[in-house]
Amino acid sequence: MRKIFHFTFVLITIVFFVIAFKNISTMYSADVYAERGRQLFDDGNYQESFQYLQRAVNLNPLEPRYYIARAKTLVGLTPGASDSNTRTYKLLALEDLRTAENLNPNNIITVKGAVSLYYFLATKDLTRPAGPENTDLEFVDITKSFYKHIWNKSPNDVGIFVLLHTYSKRLGFEDLTEESGQKIRELRPDLLEWYNFN
């Protein structure tokens, strides 16, 4: 009886270590693919970047950073794409942004990374100067909703309000520009002059 127990214990231990090694190996491979995808993005190779980030997501679908990076790559594919492809890329990026937030809704890094990407979704033509006359009407309300949604995520993190102020102003969201400026004034009035927000 004792030998059977010992054999069973050893077998369970081996199986546990094999599974643990496989999981660690998979997560490591996902990180390698994601890092390569980021490098390719920085080099302007968006299509190949997307492929590497897709592999990272497939290996570890629970990592929000991969979805943010893939959304960034999808936005990078929009300049020069046809209208229908641009819309498809933006919808896929939006899905990735929402997935990233749902995976870890309290992660401030994920929230901050998404603010600029929502701005790019709401911008019609990324090759032209930003402004209210260069907005993609399909994504303007979605972006404004997200900006309002994250308002209370971290009420004392001035970095979020600086981002909200910057991108709201570019998109012509006057109410959010005013409110985020007021919040910055409450938290760090010196930043208003530093960033020339006056």
From TrEMBL:
PROSITE patterns: TPR. InterPro entries: TPR-like_helical_dom_sf, TPR_rpt. The keyword NADP does not apply. Keywords: TPR repeat. It comes from the Bacteria. The keyword Translocase does not apply. Gene3D superfamilies: Tetratricopeptide repeat domain (1.25.40.10). TPR repeats lie at residues 30-63. This is Tetratricopeptide repeat protein.
